[in-house]
Amino acid sequence: MAMRIRLARHGAKKKPFYRIVVADVESPRDGRFLENVGTYDPLPDPAKVSLKSDRIKYWMDQGAIPTNTVKSLLKQEGFFAKTM
Predict the structure, then answer these.
(1) Using one digit for the tens of pLDDT, what is the confidence trace for 26-56?
(2) How much is the pTM?
(3) Of the residues 26, 40, 61, 78, which has the maximum number of CB atoms within 10 A of its CB?
(4) Which CATH number belongs to the domain containing residue 56 in this structure?
């Protein structure tokens, strides 16, 4: 089963809020997911990101691939510097 670490959109119209989730590649954007591993709120300045880095590392070890957007969020938070 191919897995991705990606964003799932929540929140009201014009007020986005995203959950960072691990999901099967074939499941829809806001559909079924395996685990919630963080949140991303783009509205405050600077944007607010919270991560469960131990769970993200676990899923990446299991073969989950982050999308480009999630990869850039992880880089901004220094995730790759901590784990490498």
Answers:
(1) 988 888 899 999 999 999 999 999 999 999 9
(2) 0.88
(3) 40
(4) 3.30.1320.10
